[in-house]
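_Per-residue structure_
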Amino acid sequence: MERSSQYRIRQHWLALFVALALLGCIVAYNLITMRQRIIHQEQQRLAIQARVIDKNIERQLEATSLALEGIIKDLPTLNTVQANKRLSVLADAMPGIHTLFFTDATGTILAANQPALIGKNMAASQFFVEPRQHHNPDTLYISPPFKLATNGYVFNLTKTIPRPDGRFNGIVTAGVDPDYFETILESTRYAPDMCNSINHGDGLRFMTVPYLEGQIGKNLAVPGSLFTRHRKSGKQENIYTGTTYATGEYRMAALLTLQPKELQMDKPLVILVSRNPDAILKSWKNETIFQGLLFLVACIGSAAGLVLLHRRQAQFEKQAQRAEAMVQVRYELLEYATMHTVDELLQYALDEICQISNSPIGFYHFVDPDQQTLTLQAWSTRTLQEFCRAEGHGLHYGVEQAGVWAECIQTRAPAIHNDYAGMANKKGLPAGHAPVVRELVVPVIRDERIVAVLGVGNKSSDYTLKDSEEVLYLADVTWEIIDSRRAQEELKQANELLANHARIDYLTGIYNRRMFDGLMTAEIARSCRYNSTLSLIMMDIDYFKQVNDTLGHTAGDHVLQKIAELISGRIRNYDIFSRWGGEEFVIMAPKNDLARAAELAEILREAIEQFDFGNGLRITVSFGVTQYCSGEQADDFVGRADAALYQAKRNGRNRVEIAKPPVALSENCVTEEFVQLPHIEVTS
């Protein structure tokens, strides 16, 4: 009998050992998989932030390059006084521009936005030497950052000025203050340990957020550095994990080379976005400790109670399943959040928490910063279906108006009420709510402040401390995901607003010229591809200067806005309407031939002529109309409409002139000529 007992004991120990070893492998596998997933997700996230920075900086470089090209184009028409004034106005209007000047072929500054610079010779400066040695009017030269007397760093964006024979005749350059990019870099930081920087292609660091002492001006182009590895790879984007040369810290970094082909930059900029892997894996380490402790407790408890083996095993398996279920819920919440709204996520999380805690009722409230006001955010699905017909999503009310469930706000700890009916200080339930038997309510605390309250109720048995821990853990996880989603949505909205400002005219609300140029290219390509007609209407307000001079610019702005409204309401939704500049507008009319476009122009002319702009003010507009000819250049297309417009001006204004296309490049082309529009009967 004793031998048999010993044999059974050995069998029990063996079975326990095998079971615990298997469980340990499962936990270890889940933790390893979780770690890999976290690292992969973080790498993708860093790469996305680097691309966001790239696009914003690229837009600034494009704007500066266009401004430099405009200065070069206008130089022959400007005297010294005009040039200085022009440079000063441009520098004030362009964010981040420190200095703006141009030189002759010897490097002497001829005009500048800062008078103190005029007459100085820049022949020894690298931003002059490099363009002079490698003169190319199409190249945008990016100088290495250099230190100013004020200890700040700047870098120059430079274009060369060609002589009529193509030889070098000087430079026009803009000094860019790297601090201008601080907002861009800061907006993409989603974690305190995150560090974003902009570096010259030669390796010099000139901007970092947050600011790190001794980092500005540091050369990263040393053997073995992450910067050098990235540049040698020849790839535009790389993700590395290793010790950074700049700080000596172990970091996960995304590096992206900014050098778009259309800008023809002689040197690139390199964006570096990095995080501390310890911070990235902090939650994973906590999860590892948590599961490790659970595993250790299970082992000790199982070894101490072989007499109660079966009961202990059942308890352990139940605990393990619940722990794994919580980890799984966390994974599911993270995945669900990527494709659903915050409200949908809240309801989904409540459903999962109610299932884990065996609770038919679940609710989630947000607590306002004043700690005195509650906002009902969500009910669980089962609560809405079976227990509550009350309305009030998003309803605000004071903490003092809430029932006993709100005591967790005062105590800042979970509240368990297993005898809800017997509580003397409860304040009743809203109309339509089913009776509450027992409840568990937990606070979510961030930065010493309660931000939310999650409650479950009507479990078939009493709530325990274990229930409160699990519910509190999942409530915290849910809040973390919600908070992260809010930050992402705010960043997305900021980027969308920035993109909208780049394509919409601020005064009239229609497309600006830059956006129109891009759309015109697309429409011309579409017209050629499908052999469809495409017409262009260009218009200019007659005697508009008199309106500004007599009534003021406010009245002038009102006229521009009203004309934009009048035209917008009379064109098709796929016609492209843009402010061309000043008092000029342009309409791109796909699938409209010359006759139909001319008819539309006449309709618009009459509508504007008959409109009262206030106080008896009447405005007329002159129009030029033409049709695109397959194979011609966009500039010729626009130029023909512009010529027709000025023909209308010469012929008395307040009229429509037609410019027929030039000699046949396609079957629709005829000999170019201006045609006075005959009277067109317009019926309403």
About this structure: The two ends are 110 Å apart (CA to CA). The first strand starts at residue 97 and ends at 103. Residues 1-277 form a domain with the Beta-Lactamase fold (CATH 3.30.450.20).
